[in-house]
């Protein structure tokens, strides 16, 4: 039985209309997610917000920067873009326990997590480097890379930090998108001196995170919007949402990792950390769910416990 031509034409037109609409919405989604108007480029505003969250921390940072203890540096990153970071020696340099790289989150910059920079430098006595990721802060770039291409830039920063301090123990610590970046880095071939990772509220994959955002913010299902947006992302930036997976990278890593997540995180739902934790099947791992904490507030809510959990984890990692 043959379908009437009018029905066939109608079906074809409907498919074309859905495809075109999916492409347009996908392009909008890609732009919305990866080209946000604010992307860590308002340093004055971030300085004010950070100082309100942690009173006195900007004065602490500025004083050390003015003394030349904190220094700025620039390297060439993925795609030939200039990438910026600040770095400083431990508060007691001759007794430094190693080096830490602190990675900020989505639309943030190195200023936004000075609390962790100070924790590592002053409380834990580590040399510390804090980069601005691609398209964030004082770094150049085409768009937010959600940790996926950023992982390759962090490997460059690992070399920089090691060339400065020549430590035999390095920890990578990231929050939110920085946490995802940390997990993505952990699955790459790395120098032996990279000994530990701390990820705080990172997502399980870019696909999973954007699917949650679509449902939470726009009440839309993943198909066809994410499929189309991922295709646009691959065409523009060389990667797709599903391949940018923290879980897939964790499955390839075997070095110690501390997973931290807020109990009441509804931006990167707490369910993500359980998937990430289970995905890491090799090597030592710890999990801490910060009681009552929302997204990226575990340190602010529990500064003493956060610091002591990181300290104890690093001491354990040093013995492995």
Tell me what you see in this structure.
This protein has 12 helices and 8 strands. By secondary structure, the protein is an alpha/beta fold. The chain has helices at residues 5-34, 43-53, 57-66, 114-123, 150-165, 177-186, 206-218, 225-237, 246-250, 271-279, 298-301, 303-319; strands at 71-76, 82-88, 99-103, 127-131, 170-175, 194-200, 257-262, 285-290. The protein has 2 domains: 1-34 and 207-242, no CATH class; 40-205 and 244-319, Rossmann fold (3-Layer(aba) Sandwich). The N and C termini lie far apart (71 Å). The model is unreliable at 1-22 (pLDDT under 50). It has an 8-stranded mixed β-sheet with strand order 1-2-4-3-5-6-7-8, sandwiched between helices.
SSE inventory with pairings:
Elements: H1 5-34, H2 43-53, H3 57-66, E1 71-76, E2 82-88, E3 99-103, H4 114-123, E4 127-131, H5 150-165, E5 170-175, H6 177-186, E6 194-200, H7 206-218, H8 225-237, H9 246-250, E7 257-262, H10 271-279, E8 285-290, H11 298-301, H12 303-319
Parallel strand pairs: 3-4, 3-5, 5-6, 6-7, 7-8
Antiparallel strand pairs: 1-2, 2-4
């Amino acid at each position: 039985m043959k379908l009437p031509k009018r029905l066939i034409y109608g079906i074809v037109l409907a498919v074309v209309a859905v495809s075109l609409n999916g492409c347009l919405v996908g392009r909008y989604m890609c732009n919305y997610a990866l080209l946000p108007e604010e992307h860590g480029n308002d340093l004055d505003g971030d300085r004010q917000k950070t100082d309100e969250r942690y009173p006195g921390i900007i004065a602490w940072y500025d004083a050390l920067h003015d003394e030349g203890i904190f220094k700025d540096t620039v390297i060439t990153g993925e795609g030939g873009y200039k990438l910026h970071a600040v770095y400083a020696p431990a508060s007691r340099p001759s007794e430094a326990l190693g080096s830490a790289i602190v990675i900020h989150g989505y639309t943030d910059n190195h200023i936004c997590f000075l609390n962790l920079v100070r924790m590592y430098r002053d409380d834990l006595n580590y040399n510390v480097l804090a980069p601005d990721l691609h398209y964030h802060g004082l770094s150049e770039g085409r768009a937010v890379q959600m940790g996926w291409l950023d992982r390759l830039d962090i490997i460059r920063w690992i070399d920089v930090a090691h060339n400065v301090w020549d430590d035999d123990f390095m920890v990578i610590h990231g929050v939110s998108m920085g946490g995802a970046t940390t997990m993505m880095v952990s699955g790459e071939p790395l120098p032996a001196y990279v000994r530990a990772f701390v990820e705080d509220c990172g997502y399980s994959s870019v696909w999973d995170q954007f699917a949650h955002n679509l449902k939470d913010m726009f009440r839309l299902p993943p198909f066809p919007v994410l499929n189309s947006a991922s295709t646009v992302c691959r065409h523009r930036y060389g990667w797709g949402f599903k391949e940018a997976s923290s879980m897939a990278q964790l499955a390839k890593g075997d070095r110690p990792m501390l997973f931290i997540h807020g109990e009441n995180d509804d931006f990167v739902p707490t369910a993500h950390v359980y998937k990430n934790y289970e995905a890491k099947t090799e090597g030592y791992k710890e999990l801490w769910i910060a009681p009552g904490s929302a997204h990226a507030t575990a340190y602010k809510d529990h500064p003493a416990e956060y610091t002591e959990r990181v300290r104890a984890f690093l001491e354990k990692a040093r013995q492995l």
